[in-house]
User: What shape does this take?
Amino acid sequence: MPTRVDPETTLSHILFSSGTTGLPKGVMHTQNGFKHCLNVLSHPQNGALNTNHRVLIVLPLFHIFGLITAIGGIVNNAKVLLLEKFKPDTFLKVIQEYKATYLPVVPTLLQFLSKHKIVDEYDLSSLRDIFCGGAPVGEGSEKLIAKRFNNLMPRQIFGTTEAGGGVIIMPPGHRKSGSVGKVVIGCEAKILDPESQMVLGPNKIGEICIRGPNVMKGYLKNEEATKRDLDQDGFLHTGDLGYYDKEMYFYVVDRIKEVMKYKGFQVAPAQLENILFQHPGVKEVSVVGKPDDRVGELPTAFVVKQEGVSVTENELVQLVAQHLHADKQLHGGVIFVEEIPKTQSGKVARAELRKRFQSS
Assistant: This one.
């Protein structure tokens, strides 16, 4: 007799967290949880992925974003195009030749699409939906994409490996600059004060916590980490800072562990990066804190220059100074580099950048 399978408890898959702030952990998801994640993509509120879509996947399938959108496309009868890895000319050629309509990306790919000169050499008019997840995307990046793609605004999505994919998504046709959207049907979200653990109201920054069938069963052979990240009420503590407005649109500030502390003030790298990226001479940028015995950390920008465009350290320092309070500026200055290191999932490897301070 075949063994009875309980989808509530039987594992569908084990993925490993990206390990951007520590060692990767095995994240266990049940069959019911995975089914819910796939259903999210086909729901009209989230864009109704269907047979009319041609989905281009350049994200790795060992990453939750790539896995969910690839299998989500298959189960919804969409055409799914898989690329082994990202190569600019191949990536753009596939969009043009196969007329891709649905494109899930991470912020580094969005930066490429918004500023790289080679993009103008291809016809990408078939694109109807650009999903971006993995890190906050600022208003400047959104506007650059809209300008280049005939007013096509990227839709932001918030999710983690532990949450099982997208749990907060910008609905199609809705536009709130800088927002990742609204909580998907079947899930709940709350904002907690990281210190007091009190639930916060609208426009108060705290940790984003998620509850729903999509949330992981736990970490593989790691009960301590499971108890730390899953509370007694079933809420997943994501480790991301954010808030929601009075219309229940959510905004992501940054990872709690990435926030820098300068003279006691909290400085979110994403806020500085979004300002710097608006400069035409900035091709890529990442901000990290340089350790300092006096003030804690000095916000420092690592910048890849845009070819053919002049930009100086002073210009970028002044650009940030025009937008932010003195305590949130580039007190560590700007370091120009040939490239910014990235993880296999396409995220910026901030730990590698911090190592450069140790050797300097």
Q: What stands out?
A: Residues 259-358 form a domain with the GMP Synthetase; Chain A, domain 3 fold (CATH 3.30.300.30). The radius of gyration is 20 Å.
